[in-house]
């Protein structure tokens, strides 16, 4: 029995040490941060955040934290104190003000794995050039479209009808032109819905270059923030039956910053406090 005493004492001392570190770190936190949990010292909540989940789901970690703390909360992820944003307007602000208010800041391990010129590592002009010649996300989206069409034959049939209606007015050898592509409204709806349900990019890593205040949220300079792009895609207040693949929803849904995570101009509503 006494042989277990060293292990018990070690466990107690370790627990006390971790609790001391947690309190010491909490004292140095900036004021007015969003609510949240920093998890275990050093490890934080990274394991829970990285828990596998379906691509058409926010996952239990985000659902539980948003329900408890709100759509923007603090945590400790990938070795750094971090803010997690499931707020679409804040996420759009972050993406629209890159190199002005926020900067790409991936974990160091990703640099060694992906290389310093990976498209998700670089920023600024280099990122734009790589994005313009990129093909991987396009190939992934094409695969997703094929997948969803196979599951929803009624959507495929409607897509064929739209294409046949355009082709019937063309000569046999006459190619499609830009005006023809612009008439493919339902085709665009299928693309948007596949992007929404497939979630090719779930989140990105950013760091605040200066103190930012937006919608009552305070983001301290130097803090990392993760805009969760999936949050808007499965938000029931933005999309009716968000788990359902329904391209027709885009027929009446206006493509704005309140409905989809795209690069949309938000200059008219940028905060005046940064």
From TrEMBL:
Family statement drawn from the similarity comment of this UniProt entry: Belongs to the cytochrome P450 family.
Keywords assigned: Iron, Metal-binding, Signal
Protein name: CYP724B1 protein
Recorded coiled-coil stretches: none
Signal peptide stretch: 1-26
A GO BP entry: brassinosteroid homeostasis
UniProt organism field: Hibiscus syriacus
A Pfam family this chain is assigned to: p450
Record-level Gene Ontology MF annotations: heme binding; iron ion binding; monooxygenase activity; oxidoreductase activity, acting on paired donors, with incorporation or reduction of molecular oxygen
Gene3D superfamilies xref list: Cytochrome P450
